[in-house]
Specification:
With about 170 residues, this protein is of the alpha+beta class. It has one domain (about 10-170): Aminopeptidase (3-Layer(aba) Sandwich), CATH 3.40.630.30. The protein contains five helices and eight strands; from the N terminus they run E-E-H-H-H-E-E-E-H-E-H-E-E. Strands 1-2-3-4-5-6-8-7 form an eight-stranded mixed β-sheet. Helix 1 packs across helix 3.
Length: about 170
């Protein structure tokens, strides 16, 4: 029996767990210039790679914790526009909230709308008391969104197996 995971809605968006049916969208998103610049190349070069990435990197956490990466879908036309998620990330205290959108859907409030809903869900549905986020110092758009979400800059960190210095933002309930 396949377990059902929660889907959430906002006024304009549907936020549901990413599955292998989203592979072509995930392939497109992970290969955008901003994803590669700010998040990193995940070596997803084909739709088959994207299916494997979802199956091996996203689904296990979803099955273990009930939350993971979500695909964000615009209600008005059913178009997949981005992702947001809650991640149990090694080296980060608290659950990491993250987001990324296709370039044509940036600057429309979708990232704030979806991550704000996810923050609410983290606290109310998953009883998470500390939400963290990491971003590069040069990613000002991400920092501004985190501040708008109520997270505060805490310190510079490095996560295991990565030498990049990251800004850590935190929200405590």
């Amino acid at each position: 029996m396949k377990k059902e995971y929660k889907t959430f809605e906002t006024e304009r968006l549907i936020i549901r767990p990413t599955t292998e049916i989203d592979a072509s969208f995930i392939f497109e998103l992970l290969n955008t210039p901003k994803w590669i610049k700010y998040i990193g190349d995940r070596n997803v070069k084909t739709i088959k790679d994207a299916e494997a990435y979802i199956k091996n990197k996203m689904t296990p956490q979803l099955e273990k914790l009930g939350f993971s990466n979500n695909t964000v879908i615009r209600k008005s036309d059913g178009v997949k526009i981005g992702t947001c998620g809650l991640f149990d990330r090694e080296g980060i205290d608290g659950v990491d909230i993250g987001f990324s959108f296709l370039p044509q859907f940036e600057k429309m409030g979708y990232a704030f709308e979806s991550t704000n809903k996810l923050k609410e869900v983290a606290i109310n549905d998953f009883n998470i008391s500390k939400i963290s986020a990491i971003t590069l110092k040069e990613n000002l758009d991400s920092q501004n969104l985190l501040i708008k979400l109520g997270l505060q800059f805490e310190k510079i960190v490095k996560i295991p197996n990565d030498n990049v210095k990251l800004m850590l933002f935190v929200f405590k309930v």
